[in-house]
Amino acid sequence: MPSPNRFKELFQEVQAEHKQTSTFSLNDKVLIVDGHNNYLRNFCAVPTMNEMGEHVGGVSGFLKSIGSAIRMFRPTRCIITFDGPGGSQRRRKLYPEYKENRKHLTRLNRTYDFKDKDDEDKALTWQLIALAHLLKCLPVTVLAPSNVEADDVIAYTADLIQQRDGHSIIMSTDKDFLQLVNEHIEIWNPIKKKAYYPQTVIDEYGIHPNNFTIYRALDGDKSDNISGVKGIGLKTLIKHYPTLVNEEMMDVNALIDYAERQDKGKLFESIRRNRDLIELNFKLMNLHQVQMSTSTKMSVMNRIDSANFELNKTELTKQLAELQMLGVFGNYDAWILNTWHPLIRFSNKE
Predict the structure, then answer these.
(1) Where are the beta strands (DSSP E) in 177-335?
(2) What is the DSSP letter of 124?
């Protein structure tokens, strides 16, 4: 019978061999969270109050919704993105009215009412600041580079993960991300509780994800103050451009060229007449060509590659206690164990 020392040697050899042949990567399955989208949605919809009777729905809803996604998808890592300071500058150079005249937040749940708009704005700001401090205690990577919108960071990050043979799950209710869907990138809509794959996009919209940007350029985006081409609805567009359901990508030139070859039809006439608007919208909304400088891309890549994955439970508990929010999470220790510890386990395998 082999000696105990020999058993130990064999065990170490097997471990070393497994480490050399393991295909595990920290970027195998990455949950990428649209931070502002998730925060604003929860701030408006979640009426949760702390022990002092203050509204904390933005913070609690954000952490709970991300926690739910982590437990559901079991990602190997979680990256959370926010708009950086001056995030809209590049698009405003193309279109000065971009994101102007945005409406005030619409509260979806009136269980908690603020005294006035100023009171709501103050709560919106201090909760976001509190959330930023809490995220520093969690094993997640936060990205918010200056002069860049979160949409661009998300698109660049998902593409980077794909280049490294990984898979991304983008968590957002923003349908602009549907243009990124492919076999390596899926979208999770937490309101619809629905994951979008290429066929899912085709089934719901009748358009392949590769051609979703063309549809958005024609449709516009009221939330960003981007006007679409009047009189062009989705059903009409699909009827006159049936090839949009195909995987082959159609650019603006192909869209216009086809319209110019048609003699009749109000849709084709509108497209010919609004070429400048369509080209502008396509530039504004195209996430396959992100509005990021090379230096910013390098900074984001370095942040992703050098991120620390630590759970500082002591500091997290201290901050939540100061916010008087510990009771919000029910069984706090179980929430920590089931939500955040798996991310530490995955990161330690890298």
Answers:
(1) 185-189, 194-196
(2) H
The tokens describing 25, both together, are 């990567």
Q: pLDDT for 251-273, tens place per residue?
A: 999 999 999 998 788 899 999 99
Please count the structural domains in the chain.
2
pLDDT in tens, 195-236: 999 999 999 999 999 999 999 999 999 888 899 999 888 999
Query: Residue 224 and residue 204: Cα distance in Å, rounded?
Result: 23
CATH number for the domain that contains residue 267: 1.10.150.20
* b/e map 248-276, b = 16+ CB within 10 Å: eebebeebbeebeeeeeeebbebbeebbe
Tell me whether residue 20 is in a domain. no
Report phi then psi at 151, rounded to 5. -55, -45
DSSP 3-41: -HHHHHHHHHHHHHHHHHH----TTSEEEEEEHHHHHHH
- The CATH number for 33's domain is 3.40.50.1010
As a whole number of angstroms, the distance between CA 134 and CA 204 comes to: 37
* Shared-domain flag, residues 188 and 328: yes
